[in-house]
User: What shape does this take?
Amino acid sequence: MARTRSKGGATTTSKNSKETSSTPANSKSRYVLPEESSNPPRIFILPKKATKEARIVSLLNPRYAKPTRYLVCPETGVYELTQIAAPKTTPRSWLIQYGGGEDGEKAQEAKLGNNTEFSVHITKGADLFVATPIDPVFLLLPAFIPSTSTSSESKSEKQSRLFVSSDDHLDTIQQSSPHQWEILRWGKIRQLFESRMAAICETAQAGDETMFRFSEDKLLAELLAKAQRMSENPLPKSMEDKFVTKALEAPVLGIKRAAVLQTETSVEEKQTEETATVSAAAESGASTPKETNSTESQTSGNSTATAPTSASDAAPELAPTITASPEVIRLQRLRIAFQFLSSSYIAAGYAATLRQKLSSTSLVDFAPLDAYLARLAQLRQEAAAARSVGDYTRKRDFDDEEVAARAEKKRRHDEEEKRKKAGESRGVRDLKKVNTSGMKKMSDFFKKK
Amino acid sequence: MLEARLNQAQDLKKAVDAIKDLVQDCNFDCNDSGIALQAMDNSHVALVSMMMKAEMFSPYRCDRNIALGVNLVSFTKVLRAAQNEDVLTLKAEDAPDSLNLVFENSNDRISEYDLKLMDIDQEHLGIPETEYAATISMPSAEFKRICTDLMAMSESVTIEANKDGVKFACSGDIGNGSVTLRSNTNVEKPELSIDIELTEPVSLTFSLKYLVNFCKAQPLSSSVRICLSNEVPLLVEYGLAGSSYLRFYLAPKIGDEE
Assistant: This one.
């Protein structure tokens, strides 16, 4: 499907070789490590259909209103780059070899780099960049949606309500999207952008020019269509587990135990997670596109894994009280997909407006899902209440650490008691049992010194 | 630096033995006038106060005020190693971690112990000199016998002193009983005489358990002095050599007599 090749490697390697050759060899060690390259090669997985003319450019990120790198191919469109990083706890590196011999193309490339010495390379991080197609609609959005951070807010606001040429619209984000004009001159890009602009705008013909006016309803419909397409099949496993299966799972009331404590706050959870992921990307600035930190996805994967197992303990003979109908599952998927799209590609402030719009729209009816969720919340509450009253299985909920801490505390307490007892004579112990009612304290008779 | 040499180890042994049944840990406060101790029991209804004046010891040296925080059970364990007639020497540094005890017997046997000390936060109560309405001196063995006898009947005893004598009375589930003593003077053995000094009649009730506990100091002295007044704690005093003493105070039971 995709072929792997390294970009930028050729230039860096040649530069690097000069550096190393100029440094005098250290006599103390036989092997001298070359100095770390300031611009090490990176590994990309690029789509096969992208032409050779494709370039990585900086465009405005629709969600974070910051210049971010995208791969733009004049023929096939725009691709977003996703960084896949190894978790910090398990550092990895790439061993990169150019011109393995059999692969003719690679060899050729190594030749181009004009350097056989650097046919093998080790990188510090094992980051992998994957380019996936992105709808240019999202890249156009900053031009229509007033973001609080841009100074031209009032201007864009006004413009978005008028029929204006596409150039005027794009002008508004010219400042923050440096390579935009450049790419618009490439091949079919302009045509593509304008056709996608039409998807979220009302259009009017003025002479031979098409004028555009932003339409929220069209954007919503467009997003919803995307979400619908996404939700036709089950979502990716981790998402499906966490936000669909678990969110809709009913507590098993038979053993008075809330199988899953995860409530419908999963939506907010998801958002926080999303922001967490992306804030990491924002830190690394414009240079790195959205980062999918695999540590995070791992941990969330773990947490999802534990709850279902605990629930399945009880599952065999006890069926949950209510089960979600396919219709409900489909709606939940749709909602999650929509939320995913809006939290990935749409500015935070505007995403909230869109969500509101979604709930009032007639395009899709979420009523069965809402009814189900309300019923579910009630059931969970009941289960939780029943559980807190007299649940002997509660002990199971303590994890090992807690149990250990308890045991330790008890042991220490016992020890202290024992020591105290050892330092206490029988007489003192006996006196504790004496009924001292009606006897005043000594300090009532004698004043403290 | 503390250095105190006691000719008879039993004086300290018996005192500590008696106190250890009332309190668990306490400070021995040493200064140039002697070694003092004041402590209350857990319920704070009884108080023990001991004063071992410097003249009890020969020699006695204490340059600075030192508080020796001692667990009395541990102290008893160490003191048990001393014979009654041994010469006992207490030694401690100015800021001591431990108390050094040396027991020497007449056969040149020398044993030496170090007792770990502890920090005890204790409040001291000021005990004023009191004129008691009734002061009874009697043989300590007699007092002990009365208390243990009555203890079999009841939890508490009413001590009533008037011009006829002093009456220890109790009543319990199985019945009631009383012991009445009249003042008498034994010329041959003055320690066996009973002397009652009375300014006004008093009648007070006390917990027998505590009194029996106080009686553990009986071996210290052949006679005991019991002082009573309304509305103040009972004082039971065992005299030690010279003007040193071991005193117990106990709050009277007021109100519910069951």
